[in-house]
Amino acid sequence: MTAGSSILNPLWSGTEIARATADGAVLSALLRVEAAWGGVLAEAGVASEASAEQVRSISIDPHGAGLRSDVLADAASGGGNPVIPLLAEVRRVLAARKADDDALHRSATSQDILDTALVIVLREGADIVLGDIRRIAAALSQLSADHRATVCVARTLTQHALPTTVGLRMAGWLDGVVRSAERLEVARAGLRLQWGGAAGTQAALVDILGQAEPSGSTTASAGELTEQLAQVLNLAPMTRPWHTQRQSILEISSALAGVVAALGKAAADVLTLQRPEIGELREPRGPGRGGSSAMPQKRNPVLSTLIRSAALSAPGSLATLHHSAAAAVDERPDGGWQAEWPQLMELLRLAGGAALRGAELFEGLEVLPQAVAQNLAQSGDALLSERIVSRLGHRTPGGPAALKTVLAESAVTGTPLRSALRKVFTTAELAADELDQLLDPELYLGRTQEFIDASLNAANSFLTNSERMIR
Amino acid sequence: MTAGSSILNPLWSGTEIARATADGAVLSALLRVEAAWGGVLAEAGVASEASAEQVRSISIDPHGAGLRSDVLADAASGGGNPVIPLLAEVRRVLAARKADDDALHRSATSQDILDTALVIVLREGADIVLGDIRRIAAALSQLSADHRATVCVARTLTQHALPTTVGLRMAGWLDGVVRSAERLEVARAGLRLQWGGAAGTQAALVDILGQAEPSGSTTASAGELTEQLAQVLNLAPMTRPWHTQRQSILEISSALAGVVAALGKAAADVLTLQRPEIGELREPRGPGRGGSSAMPQKRNPVLSTLIRSAALSAPGSLATLHHSAAAAVDERPDGGWQAEWPQLMELLRLAGGAALRGAELFEGLEVLPQAVAQNLAQSGDALLSERIVSRLGHRTPGGPAALKTVLAESAVTGTPLRSALRKVFTTAELAADELDQLLDPELYLGRTQEFIDASLNAANSFLTNSERMIR
Amino acid sequence: MTAGSSILNPLWSGTEIARATADGAVLSALLRVEAAWGGVLAEAGVASEASAEQVRSISIDPHGAGLRSDVLADAASGGGNPVIPLLAEVRRVLAARKADDDALHRSATSQDILDTALVIVLREGADIVLGDIRRIAAALSQLSADHRATVCVARTLTQHALPTTVGLRMAGWLDGVVRSAERLEVARAGLRLQWGGAAGTQAALVDILGQAEPSGSTTASAGELTEQLAQVLNLAPMTRPWHTQRQSILEISSALAGVVAALGKAAADVLTLQRPEIGELREPRGPGRGGSSAMPQKRNPVLSTLIRSAALSAPGSLATLHHSAAAAVDERPDGGWQAEWPQLMELLRLAGGAALRGAELFEGLEVLPQAVAQNLAQSGDALLSERIVSRLGHRTPGGPAALKTVLAESAVTGTPLRSALRKVFTTAELAADELDQLLDPELYLGRTQEFIDASLNAANSFLTNSERMIR
Amino acid sequence: MTAGSSILNPLWSGTEIARATADGAVLSALLRVEAAWGGVLAEAGVASEASAEQVRSISIDPHGAGLRSDVLADAASGGGNPVIPLLAEVRRVLAARKADDDALHRSATSQDILDTALVIVLREGADIVLGDIRRIAAALSQLSADHRATVCVARTLTQHALPTTVGLRMAGWLDGVVRSAERLEVARAGLRLQWGGAAGTQAALVDILGQAEPSGSTTASAGELTEQLAQVLNLAPMTRPWHTQRQSILEISSALAGVVAALGKAAADVLTLQRPEIGELREPRGPGRGGSSAMPQKRNPVLSTLIRSAALSAPGSLATLHHSAAAAVDERPDGGWQAEWPQLMELLRLAGGAALRGAELFEGLEVLPQAVAQNLAQSGDALLSERIVSRLGHRTPGGPAALKTVLAESAVTGTPLRSALRKVFTTAELAADELDQLLDPELYLGRTQEFIDASLNAANSFLTNSERMIR
To answer: How far is CA C278 from the centre of its chain?
Structure first.
């Protein structure tokens, strides 16, 4: 089976994020942590180079060493996590290779290995998500700029409200996505090494290093080795173990769910706006995209549909992770921790899938100006009602309230606004060209351009910083 | 990779429910639906026997036909569901086998196939869950009966409260599990065929059967063929399509989540009661169960831990399914439906994993009577305080309130209850043997035996009916 | 403050369900339970009639007795629930009235009182919900029947798919609502008395009745008194206490959430279908409904909007209740129980608010046939593509696949279907009137009428049974 | 009814956070926004001072002006939000006072007012939460320091694992709470003014200011007035409206849920550690705290119980808010926005209630050193098994694996570790005092002190910065 395939998850099946969170990737991350620690121990002189070398070799080619993630997975229920059978297997391999196991798992606990491995997967997964968000940010910036002056109808509570521009709508999507991505960057930076030993005290490590006794066998301290491990794994240093303090897990989870929500909002709008009766937008038509099993004429908005399905799924995972954090009892938890693992992978896949589909969606999204104009025209002059009341209310007998009543009634009866106004104002009272000006949607766009620029600037700043961060 | 393995899901990795919900099982169910329909069409004379036969042959051996679930999975994003690439592949195979495709997917829509396949997987999955629940019900019935008279301390808000019996506690678990299972049986029976065609009208089917026109080509009606299909698939008949009315999905989901909650409550109690300081229970020690990666002396309560992790995870999936049901817009949904699929499989796996682990747990659960007695003795006479107030309150100067104060103070100061009472009552006022009787926990068990019997009877009735239902 | 008002909850503020779940209603239910039990005890001769009478009097007029729900609420944090301060207050009143307190709370625990009170509120709340659902079922039955032949476009994944009828769409809503209501009726019937005493054994009650000792002071058994209490409160009898077995709570919660989901699906469709560009439906315009603070021309679909907000909120409460059920540890829980109370009231209010707004919505919902027809015409002949392929595919050179390609291309290029077909078939090959027939949406409605009838029958059966049940 | 009382919410009923989120507080915040804007308009010369003054006067004394939050609440269903009836009422008052309404709601939309009011409530609510967290941080710092050397048993998967110290356990709680609070500070700072007008363009404002036309009637720009409004309300400036981009709402919600999770973890530990059989901790005994309705001897851990109930409830609200954010369609949403309001208040109350109860809990939490020592002694030498294997494994015939087997067997059979070791090592091979040293828990505490210091430093830095921030 291809790593990362899942027949009921077209959102992410077969994508980069799926591979990065598949069992093989988790196994690899687990082994990378063991290998990195073996190397640190060997360098400090408390484990043999040969043992460390063999652990490293296994971590590079677990398949060649005969490790199979499915076998480990099925054995994991014995101890409640996959690290325990993994260690047994690695020890078996080391023994077969006549290598010592003194560089393996020394002073560590399975939670150290698994949490750190998950952090590695989360960090690499976040980079994949951020990579696709950069594509989205670039695409939406372009769309916002291109359509900054395309006047369209703004909809509130589903009804036509005022004029706005297509560019401002897209700048809103851009704004949400960029802000969520910046939070993801912060949360990603908050991910750190987990290294506490069996009960979060590093007692075994200190003991090995001989610090609990007068004559230490090495000059390196437990703190120094911990820092070296973080460096080797390219992770933020750890000030203290967090076996049962899961705030950094909540931070990255919330950020991932925030990304999905931002994309979900945009996808929901695209789904509305490409309904045939509205027709202002069209999803890109790639080969094989949007087909139906029964109706040859259909082009389904598959990308938005998949993103929306992500937005329906992510909050449940986020809630579970908060329950798990509160259930992280004692010095290491009895169920709360175990419940986290699949939800973290799921959130990564939902965010990654949504970002990848979003990138394809926004890079190819078509705006159909004719439909935009037609919908704007449908409500016509009524879209300027707010302005009419503001400008003419006090010139109306009975004041603004009376004018509001006139406008509300014209909406109910379907009387064109101009006709309704002409029953109130003679042309002497309200000249035709003044009325034309008042009813010109292009003259009632407020700070649309400023707000678009604000989003574009924020996006540009994100893209610039984000690029720098990666390098 | 072994079907149904998952390195971060030791709860269910490698189990029967995992296999029953794996991609291969879903693919098989999809093909079984197509094959059943092909057979119905052929029998009705509206498709060729040869085509139906070939579809059936592919459904029996998809691998032999070159179908790969991972390839289909990765192609599913094109149309947003796996049925579309599946049909393309099956058509390719039929063509290669020189067979007509007139028995394939005629008049159906992908949602018909996928919903019905999910119903099949749900029904078979529910049977697996119910099978393990029957084991649990039998084991807990035995435990409840065996320990019906083992007096222990009842705990409320974590504190010692009154005497009860170990049997009653277990009868409570039994009660919860049995009631949840009965709801699952009802929900399972409510699962039915989905057959509506592209928009839920069966227009294509009626059209094929020629009913929309004067001279029909067959005597079978669309309703009859629909009923035959349900029969062939051994599903409840369908009164109308439910593409966007997902109540039966909510019913089965709620029932599965209810099972997990019932098991989660029992597991939470086991986790508490096997804490070393309490020590009233001990999980069974199978080979490879409960080991630690660092501490050789430890026996971890892995089964309860895994069940608790299920209880932390199921509610999020249930919530997602309710959101999806409300988002099932139009005649077929744009994201709501797609979000359901993985959550349904997840709920099945959580319930199935929890039930399997629960069966192992309760079939081997040990009660340690010495610890039970010791904990009962720890609070000692104070456990009878409620009774003392009820019996002696009105004989106390100052009445029940005064006596309550005495008892509360004795609890705070740690004064033994008897000493405290002796400051209130002389032996003349309260004879030693009366006091002994009053303070005998065995004489303050209320309707414990009746309540145990009520649970045992309910369980027995469930086991009997459930057995009959299966046959 | 008006009972049941809430400035941020327009969904239900000021409605019957809000009053039925307000603090005063809960207080009243708590007192009704105490009074009923006092009455049972007095009748059995184990409490004084005078005391029972006073408790009853307080329960009828708590305000007159000086009880204030806000004072009790603020005092409830002391013991963690409101029953404890309530008892203190009632005792104070009894003392002031020179009445004995021997009919108050004898042998009960606060959870008995609160759970039973919540059951009463849930049952009465469910009746309110069901009452409004009956209005909805009647209204939707009428709409389905009225519009059973109004042909409209069916939409799948937001795109035009096939012809269907407005009546079938509404029959779908009807079906969902009725099925959810039937589940609510079942769950309501499963609600029962909670009566277990401090640890679920009824030890205190048995003790009072003298059954633990040779010479009982009464001939009534604890079981009989428990049954009498259930009768007096008009509740289902209890086979055993369920302090920590919360399946019946899960059943009613799931049913309430199911009702909200069914209404949420319908409201989502109404929100789509009344978009100005689609315009097939219009919410009723009551006085004060749908106004905007800024735009006089707007008529906002407020009823559907409020129902949708309920559908977004209910799943979270349902999930919390499942977590709470699993956290119902020991013999009485340390947080799981406490978390249930507000969520149960919230679910009642969400379901009640949604049902009330739904009744107003569907009793006044307008169908705009002209827009219906116009949208159907927009996609035109393409809606019959599925039929064209089925009927003409095998008459096409290259077969169905070739014809599908023609149709898909015509959709992309916007070529009318007839023109496209004419490039494939001469009029000799395909007569004009045959084509007209093939492209007539009225002749491609399949089993629409049967399916409508199925829903109407189910609704009728619900309305009949439901009416009988209430009487 | 007392503002902020709720009979089923003892967690927060009657507290400061309850008052700060009650209907009256929301009404006041709504009016403060209107008044602030009226003031800005008047100062800019585009509204009359008299009108602004009257709006301000109403905002200061809404009761005096005859505004009743319950009446407004019940009227809010008309337009779907409370601002619409509020404006009608305020206009009525202004008219009665012969004041113009030109300073009321000019150019604003109801979402501007309500979102900004919620931001004000959230900010003030966050300050209340942070105030109590500062108390908690101080109390936990003290406890961590006081008990930094109190050796206790560390528990993993509920079982005894290694030695640790009470101080380190508490430093863990401290760490979680402080980190969550720092996130809350960041999210609080990210809350900003909402000011977009009917469709998020500020068109009405720009129009009023005459900027859309050559000759402006004022020199102030819309941007400047927006900034002034933010200043007057003491809010962060707004770069663009966020009617449908709800990231800042997600940020504050996630932070509040994070606070609850951190407190929930600590409360869960307290609940375990004060079980009678464990007894290492005791909740403070305030007057009226912890009583039972039936059992006078009981002291219930009410504070932890209430905090745990918060931890069970918050994730559901957080999930709802993420669904709402994704459902924030169009230019202003049709249900997504409306669903947010009560959940935001609920999250504030849960966090505020948990923090307040937590402050009382941790300021009075007692450590019982005797029970701590007794539990440590219960597992005795076995707690040093990890060390024994590390130190003696290679001196054992058969190596570490053989020694592990010995230790595991001694755990199963209950053989004291020393006896078991003596079967492996003679006193010549392993001197008595060496063994004593190896088995001394005080000599196997690793970096406990460093990790405590890390938490104390982080807490100190939070307390210092946080104090500064407030001033």
So the answer is: 29
